[in-house]
Amino acid sequence: MASTRFQPDRGLTSRMVLVMFFLGLLYVVAIGAVIAAGVAIAWVIIIAGGFLIAQWFFSDKIALAAMRARVVSPEEAPDLHAIVDRLCALADMPKPRVAVADMALPNAFATGRNQKNSVLCVTTGLLRRLDQNELEGVLAHELSHIAHRDVAVMTIASFLGVLAGLIARFGMYSGIGRSRDNNAALVFAVVWLSSIVVYVISFLLTRALSRYRELAADRAAAHLTGQPSALASALTRISDDMQQIPQQDLRRAQPAQAFFFAPAAVGKSLGRLFSTHPSTEVRLAQLAKISAELGKPMV
Protein backbone atom coordinates (compact mmCIF):
# COMPACT_ATOMS: atom_id res chain seq x y z
CA MET A 1 0.00 0.00 0.00
CA ALA A 2 1.20 3.52 -0.78
CA SER A 3 2.16 5.59 2.25
CA THR A 4 -0.99 7.03 3.84
CA ARG A 5 -2.34 7.31 7.35
CA PHE A 6 -4.95 4.65 6.71
CA GLN A 7 -4.30 1.69 8.95
CA PRO A 8 -2.26 -0.90 6.98
CA ASP A 9 -4.02 -4.22 6.50
CA ARG A 10 -1.62 -7.11 6.05
CA GLY A 11 -4.52 -9.53 5.77
CA LEU A 12 -5.87 -7.66 2.76
CA THR A 13 -2.44 -7.31 1.16
CA SER A 14 -1.66 -11.03 1.55
CA ARG A 15 -5.06 -12.00 0.16
CA MET A 16 -4.62 -9.75 -2.87
CA VAL A 17 -1.19 -11.27 -3.57
CA LEU A 18 -2.49 -14.82 -3.15
CA VAL A 19 -5.55 -14.25 -5.33
CA MET A 20 -3.48 -12.75 -8.13
CA PHE A 21 -0.87 -15.52 -7.82
CA PHE A 22 -3.40 -18.33 -7.98
CA LEU A 23 -5.36 -16.70 -10.79
CA GLY A 24 -2.17 -16.13 -12.76
CA LEU A 25 -1.02 -19.71 -12.20
CA LEU A 26 -4.45 -21.01 -13.10
CA TYR A 27 -4.50 -19.12 -16.37
CA VAL A 28 -0.96 -20.03 -17.37
CA VAL A 29 -1.78 -23.72 -16.92
CA ALA A 30 -5.16 -23.45 -18.64
CA ILE A 31 -3.91 -21.47 -21.64
CA GLY A 32 -0.88 -23.76 -21.96
CA ALA A 33 -3.16 -26.79 -22.03
CA VAL A 34 -5.41 -25.19 -24.64
CA ILE A 35 -2.47 -24.30 -26.88
CA ALA A 36 -0.99 -27.79 -26.44
CA ALA A 37 -4.32 -29.21 -27.54
CA GLY A 38 -3.91 -27.36 -30.82
CA VAL A 39 -6.67 -24.82 -30.33
CA ALA A 40 -5.86 -21.45 -31.94
CA ILE A 41 -6.97 -18.95 -29.32
CA ALA A 42 -4.44 -16.26 -30.18
CA TRP A 43 -7.09 -13.88 -31.45
CA VAL A 44 -9.21 -14.39 -28.34
CA ILE A 45 -6.23 -13.54 -26.11
CA ILE A 46 -5.30 -10.51 -28.25
CA ILE A 47 -8.84 -9.16 -28.20
CA ALA A 48 -9.21 -9.90 -24.48
CA GLY A 49 -5.86 -8.20 -23.84
CA GLY A 50 -7.16 -5.13 -25.61
CA PHE A 51 -10.20 -5.11 -23.35
CA LEU A 52 -7.96 -5.45 -20.29
CA ILE A 53 -5.85 -2.47 -21.33
CA ALA A 54 -8.96 -0.40 -21.98
CA GLN A 55 -10.46 -1.41 -18.65
CA TRP A 56 -7.20 -0.67 -16.81
CA PHE A 57 -6.78 2.82 -18.22
CA PHE A 58 -10.44 3.79 -18.56
CA SER A 59 -12.13 1.92 -15.69
CA ASP A 60 -13.02 5.18 -13.96
CA LYS A 61 -14.64 6.63 -17.08
CA ILE A 62 -16.47 3.36 -17.78
CA ALA A 63 -17.84 3.23 -14.23
CA LEU A 64 -19.01 6.85 -14.32
CA ALA A 65 -20.68 6.34 -17.68
CA ALA A 66 -22.46 3.20 -16.44
CA MET A 67 -23.80 5.14 -13.45
CA ARG A 68 -24.51 8.26 -15.53
CA ALA A 69 -22.42 10.19 -13.05
CA ARG A 70 -20.50 13.38 -13.66
CA VAL A 71 -17.46 14.92 -12.04
CA VAL A 72 -18.42 17.95 -9.94
CA SER A 73 -16.32 20.96 -9.00
CA PRO A 74 -15.95 22.45 -5.50
CA GLU A 75 -18.27 25.24 -6.60
CA GLU A 76 -20.98 22.74 -7.57
CA ALA A 77 -20.71 20.58 -4.43
CA PRO A 78 -18.86 22.60 -1.76
CA ASP A 79 -19.96 20.51 1.24
CA LEU A 80 -19.04 17.22 -0.40
CA HIS A 81 -15.65 18.54 -1.51
CA ALA A 82 -14.99 19.94 1.95
CA ILE A 83 -15.43 16.50 3.53
CA VAL A 84 -13.22 14.83 0.92
CA ASP A 85 -10.56 17.54 1.37
CA ARG A 86 -10.58 17.01 5.13
CA LEU A 87 -10.36 13.23 4.88
CA CYS A 88 -7.57 13.32 2.29
CA ALA A 89 -5.59 15.71 4.50
CA LEU A 90 -6.20 13.43 7.48
CA ALA A 91 -5.14 10.37 5.49
CA ASP A 92 -2.24 12.20 3.78
CA MET A 93 -3.25 11.02 0.31
CA PRO A 94 -3.93 12.73 -3.04
CA LYS A 95 -7.48 13.91 -3.54
CA PRO A 96 -9.42 11.90 -6.13
CA ARG A 97 -11.86 13.45 -8.53
CA VAL A 98 -15.32 13.76 -7.02
CA ALA A 99 -18.42 12.72 -8.94
CA VAL A 100 -22.16 12.59 -8.30
CA ALA A 101 -24.73 10.22 -9.82
CA ASP A 102 -28.31 11.47 -9.87
CA MET A 103 -30.22 8.45 -8.59
CA ALA A 104 -32.34 7.50 -5.59
CA LEU A 105 -30.08 4.58 -4.64
CA PRO A 106 -28.09 5.59 -1.52
CA ASN A 107 -24.56 4.42 -2.25
CA ALA A 108 -20.98 5.31 -3.10
CA PHE A 109 -18.02 3.73 -4.83
CA ALA A 110 -14.39 4.44 -5.73
CA THR A 111 -12.52 3.31 -8.78
CA GLY A 112 -9.26 3.97 -10.61
CA ARG A 113 -5.92 2.27 -11.20
CA ASN A 114 -3.97 4.24 -8.57
CA GLN A 115 -4.19 7.16 -6.15
CA LYS A 116 -3.38 9.71 -8.84
CA ASN A 117 -5.95 8.35 -11.28
CA SER A 118 -9.03 7.68 -9.21
CA VAL A 119 -12.55 8.96 -8.73
CA LEU A 120 -14.89 8.91 -5.75
CA CYS A 121 -18.56 8.84 -6.67
CA VAL A 122 -21.63 9.31 -4.47
CA THR A 123 -25.30 9.25 -5.38
CA THR A 124 -27.78 12.03 -4.69
CA GLY A 125 -29.78 9.47 -2.71
CA LEU A 126 -26.83 9.05 -0.33
CA LEU A 127 -26.35 12.80 0.09
CA ARG A 128 -30.03 13.23 1.00
CA ARG A 129 -30.12 10.45 3.57
CA LEU A 130 -26.92 10.78 5.61
CA ASP A 131 -25.80 13.42 8.07
CA GLN A 132 -22.27 14.82 7.92
CA ASN A 133 -20.67 12.28 10.28
CA GLU A 134 -22.30 9.34 8.50
CA LEU A 135 -21.26 10.67 5.10
CA GLU A 136 -17.72 11.17 6.37
CA GLY A 137 -17.59 7.52 7.45
CA VAL A 138 -18.76 6.28 4.04
CA LEU A 139 -16.32 8.50 2.15
CA ALA A 140 -13.45 7.38 4.39
CA HIS A 141 -14.42 3.78 3.61
CA GLU A 142 -14.23 4.46 -0.13
CA LEU A 143 -10.97 6.40 0.12
CA SER A 144 -9.40 3.45 1.92
CA HIS A 145 -10.14 1.29 -1.14
CA ILE A 146 -8.04 3.70 -3.20
CA ALA A 147 -5.27 3.77 -0.58
CA HIS A 148 -5.20 -0.03 -0.29
CA ARG A 149 -5.21 -0.37 -4.11
CA ASP A 150 -7.73 -3.17 -3.91
CA VAL A 151 -9.85 -1.48 -6.60
CA ALA A 152 -7.09 -2.09 -9.17
CA VAL A 153 -6.66 -5.70 -8.05
CA MET A 154 -10.41 -6.30 -8.26
CA THR A 155 -10.46 -4.85 -11.78
CA ILE A 156 -7.78 -7.28 -12.97
CA ALA A 157 -9.20 -10.27 -11.10
CA SER A 158 -12.70 -9.65 -12.48
CA PHE A 159 -11.32 -9.40 -16.01
CA LEU A 160 -9.64 -12.82 -15.75
CA GLY A 161 -13.04 -14.37 -15.10
CA VAL A 162 -14.34 -12.69 -18.26
CA LEU A 163 -11.40 -14.12 -20.21
CA ALA A 164 -12.26 -17.65 -19.06
CA GLY A 165 -15.84 -17.10 -20.22
CA LEU A 166 -14.61 -15.94 -23.64
CA ILE A 167 -12.40 -19.02 -24.03
CA ALA A 168 -15.31 -21.27 -23.03
CA ARG A 169 -17.59 -19.67 -25.62
CA PHE A 170 -14.87 -19.80 -28.27
CA GLY A 171 -14.36 -23.49 -27.65
CA MET A 172 -18.08 -24.18 -27.72
CA TYR A 173 -18.78 -22.32 -30.96
CA SER A 174 -15.58 -23.44 -32.66
CA GLY A 175 -16.15 -27.14 -32.75
CA ILE A 176 -17.96 -28.87 -29.91
CA GLY A 177 -20.63 -31.00 -31.44
CA ARG A 178 -19.68 -29.91 -34.99
CA SER A 179 -16.58 -31.92 -35.74
CA ARG A 180 -16.92 -35.39 -37.22
CA ASP A 181 -13.55 -36.22 -35.68
CA ASN A 182 -14.22 -37.74 -32.27
CA ASN A 183 -10.74 -36.79 -31.04
CA ALA A 184 -11.22 -33.15 -32.05
CA ALA A 185 -14.61 -33.09 -30.39
CA LEU A 186 -13.03 -34.50 -27.22
CA VAL A 187 -10.31 -31.81 -27.27
CA PHE A 188 -12.86 -29.03 -27.61
CA ALA A 189 -14.96 -30.56 -24.83
CA VAL A 190 -11.95 -30.65 -22.52
CA VAL A 191 -11.09 -27.03 -23.37
CA TRP A 192 -14.66 -25.94 -22.79
CA LEU A 193 -15.01 -27.74 -19.47
CA SER A 194 -11.59 -26.51 -18.31
CA SER A 195 -12.58 -22.93 -19.06
CA ILE A 196 -15.75 -23.35 -17.05
CA VAL A 197 -13.74 -24.67 -14.09
CA VAL A 198 -11.34 -21.73 -14.39
CA TYR A 199 -14.28 -19.31 -14.51
CA VAL A 200 -15.91 -20.81 -11.42
CA ILE A 201 -12.66 -20.74 -9.41
CA SER A 202 -11.98 -17.15 -10.54
CA PHE A 203 -15.50 -16.15 -9.57
CA LEU A 204 -15.22 -17.63 -6.09
CA LEU A 205 -11.75 -16.15 -5.47
CA THR A 206 -12.80 -12.63 -6.51
CA ARG A 207 -15.99 -12.81 -4.43
CA ALA A 208 -14.00 -13.90 -1.37
CA LEU A 209 -11.56 -11.02 -1.90
CA SER A 210 -14.45 -8.61 -2.42
CA ARG A 211 -16.02 -9.55 0.92
CA TYR A 212 -12.74 -9.23 2.81
CA ARG A 213 -11.86 -5.87 1.27
CA GLU A 214 -15.15 -4.42 2.48
CA LEU A 215 -14.35 -5.44 6.06
CA ALA A 216 -10.84 -4.02 5.65
CA ALA A 217 -12.26 -0.71 4.39
CA ASP A 218 -14.68 -0.55 7.34
CA ARG A 219 -11.78 -1.06 9.76
CA ALA A 220 -9.58 1.52 8.05
CA ALA A 221 -12.36 4.12 7.93
CA ALA A 222 -13.34 3.56 11.57
CA HIS A 223 -9.77 4.02 12.76
CA LEU A 224 -9.10 7.05 10.55
CA THR A 225 -12.22 8.97 11.58
CA GLY A 226 -12.37 7.60 15.12
CA GLN A 227 -16.15 7.29 14.71
CA PRO A 228 -17.11 3.66 14.03
CA SER A 229 -20.62 4.37 15.32
CA ALA A 230 -21.19 6.92 12.52
CA LEU A 231 -20.13 4.36 9.91
CA ALA A 232 -22.38 1.75 11.51
CA SER A 233 -25.29 4.21 11.48
CA ALA A 234 -24.73 4.92 7.78
CA LEU A 235 -24.55 1.21 6.96
CA THR A 236 -27.77 0.51 8.86
CA ARG A 237 -29.60 3.43 7.28
CA ILE A 238 -28.52 2.50 3.74
CA SER A 239 -29.38 -1.19 4.19
CA ASP A 240 -32.81 -0.37 5.62
CA ASP A 241 -33.61 2.15 2.88
CA MET A 242 -32.64 -0.24 0.08
CA GLN A 243 -36.15 -1.74 0.25
CA GLN A 244 -37.59 1.57 -0.94
CA ILE A 245 -35.39 1.97 -4.01
CA PRO A 246 -37.09 1.65 -7.44
CA GLN A 247 -36.20 -1.50 -9.33
CA GLN A 248 -34.89 0.48 -12.31
CA ASP A 249 -32.27 2.12 -10.09
CA LEU A 250 -31.26 -1.27 -8.66
CA ARG A 251 -30.88 -2.72 -12.15
CA ARG A 252 -28.90 0.30 -13.33
CA ALA A 253 -26.49 -0.16 -10.43
CA GLN A 254 -25.78 -3.87 -10.99
CA PRO A 255 -22.59 -3.40 -13.09
CA ALA A 256 -20.94 -1.61 -10.14
CA GLN A 257 -22.32 -3.97 -7.47
CA ALA A 258 -18.95 -5.27 -6.25
CA PHE A 259 -17.57 -1.74 -5.86
CA PHE A 260 -20.44 -0.21 -3.85
CA PHE A 261 -20.29 0.65 -0.17
CA ALA A 262 -23.37 -1.55 0.37
CA PRO A 263 -24.88 -4.12 -2.02
CA ALA A 264 -27.48 -2.64 -4.36
CA ALA A 265 -29.97 -5.44 -3.84
CA VAL A 266 -32.88 -6.47 -1.67
CA GLY A 267 -33.87 -9.83 -0.26
CA LYS A 268 -31.71 -12.78 0.68
CA SER A 269 -28.40 -13.48 -1.01
CA LEU A 270 -28.00 -16.74 -2.93
CA GLY A 271 -25.32 -17.66 -0.46
CA ARG A 272 -22.22 -16.41 1.22
CA LEU A 273 -19.92 -17.81 -1.47
CA PHE A 274 -21.72 -15.79 -4.15
CA SER A 275 -22.06 -12.48 -2.30
CA THR A 276 -19.92 -9.43 -3.06
CA HIS A 277 -20.25 -8.05 0.48
CA PRO A 278 -20.22 -9.54 3.97
CA SER A 279 -23.59 -9.42 5.70
CA THR A 280 -24.64 -6.21 7.43
CA GLU A 281 -24.65 -8.08 10.74
CA VAL A 282 -21.00 -9.11 10.33
CA ARG A 283 -19.97 -5.57 9.44
CA LEU A 284 -21.87 -4.06 12.37
CA ALA A 285 -20.35 -6.59 14.78
CA GLN A 286 -16.85 -5.65 13.61
CA LEU A 287 -17.59 -1.93 14.02
CA ALA A 288 -18.99 -2.54 17.51
CA LYS A 289 -15.75 -4.32 18.44
CA ILE A 290 -13.64 -1.44 17.10
CA SER A 291 -15.82 1.03 18.97
CA ALA A 292 -15.22 -0.84 22.22
CA GLU A 293 -11.47 -0.92 21.56
CA LEU A 294 -11.49 2.84 21.03
CA GLY A 295 -13.52 3.37 24.18
CA LYS A 296 -16.41 4.84 22.21
CA PRO A 297 -19.54 2.77 22.82
CA MET A 298 -21.94 2.47 19.89
CA VAL A 299 -24.83 4.92 20.07
UniProtKB/TrEMBL annotation:
Xref: Gene3D superfamilies: Metalloproteases ('zincins'), catalytic domain (3.30.2010.10)
Membrane topology: Multi-pass membrane protein
Domain of life of the organism encoding this protein: Bacteria
Domain Peptidase M48 as annotated: residue spans: 75-289
Membrane spanning stretches: 12-34, 40-58, 151-172, 184-205
Enzyme class: hydrolase
Similarity remark: Belongs to the peptidase M48B family.
Protein name: Protease HtpX homolog
Lineage: Bacteria, Bacillati, Actinomycetota, Actinomycetes, Propionibacteriales
Gene: htpX
